[in-house]
Amino acid sequence: MDLAGSLRDGKNDEFSDIDITVTVNQDVNDRDFFFALPDLLRPIGGTVRGWGFHALPDQYVATFLFEDFPLFWGVDIARAGGAQQDGSDLVPIYRWEQIYKMWILAAKYIARGEAKFGDVHRRVARHVEVSVPPSTAAARLAELLSGIEARKIDRGDPYQSLHARYVELAASLTSA
Predict the structure, then answer these.
(1) DSSP characters for 71-94?
(2) How many CB atoms neighbour CB 122 within 10 A?
(3) How far from each other are the two terminal CA atoms of the chain, in whole angstroms?
(4) Cα(54)–Cα(79) distance, integer angstroms
(5) CA dihedral defined by 88, 48, 164, 170, rounded to 10 degrees?
(6) Cα separation, 72 vs 134, whole angstroms
(7) Cβ pair 63, 95 in contact under 8 A
(8) What is the pLDDT of residues 36-49, one digit of tens each?
(9) Contact 165/73 with Cβ under 8 angstroms?
(10) Could you give the domains of the chain?
(11) Nearest-CA neighbor of 33 among 17, 46, 20, 16?
């Protein structure tokens, strides 16, 4: 197991997530590995609030959110080695965790003052249809956050405690 991303490169900040790469044996299928991860992570402590696929269909990256840790401390786990199995059939499946990951990404861009609206919008568009007026990058990202929240609420958002924390974070970011 190795650190990846900004933690490995020493470019992390208070908004950085935790990226990990796990090397598996050649006889381990990446799809089976990712479906087993929730049970493997449960002993860490706190409640695993779910997981979602990212980077499908060619690569599986599982995202885990823990209720008792800061919102930006999501854990992304990628697999190295082993056999790759196509994930095309999983791309259209709606998962709460994917929406939360996209929300966190948008919030991170607002908090850092980065103008990466196109990247966030493209990823979110796989799961949520959001119409955003042309304006400043911060205003467009704030509108995207609002649209994602509306979608979660509309779909019966099952993570009420996380939802309250996201609302508080959004208010602090958009008023800054």
Answers:
(1) TT--EEEEEEEEE----GGGTT--
(2) 9
(3) 38
(4) 12
(5) -60
(6) 27
(7) no
(8) 888 888 887 666 66
(9) no
(10) 2-90 (3.30.460.10), 96-175 (no CATH)
(11) 20
> How confident is the model over 77-93, as pLDDT tens digits?
888 887 788 888 887 77
Beta bridge partners of 4: 19
Q: How far is residue 18 from each of residues 3, 8, 94, 107, 160, measured CA to CA in Å?
A: 8, 10, 23, 16, 23
- Nearest residue to 109 via CA among 95, 99, 124, 119: 119
User: According to DSSP H, which parts of the chain are helical?
Assistant: 5-9, 30-41, 96-112, 117-124, 137-154, 160-175
Hey, how many other C-beta atoms are within 10 angstroms of the C-beta on 41?
17
The tokens for 59 are 């690569």
Contact 62, 52 (CB under 8 A): yes
Q: Is the dihedral of CA 68, 72, 130, 54 positive or negative?
A: negative
| Vertex 88 angle, CA 84 and 93, to 5° | 125
* pLDDT surpassing 60 at residue 115: no
70 prior amide bond cis, ω within 30: no
All residues at 6 or more sequence positions from 169 whose CB lies less than 8 Å from its CB, including other chains: 71, 107
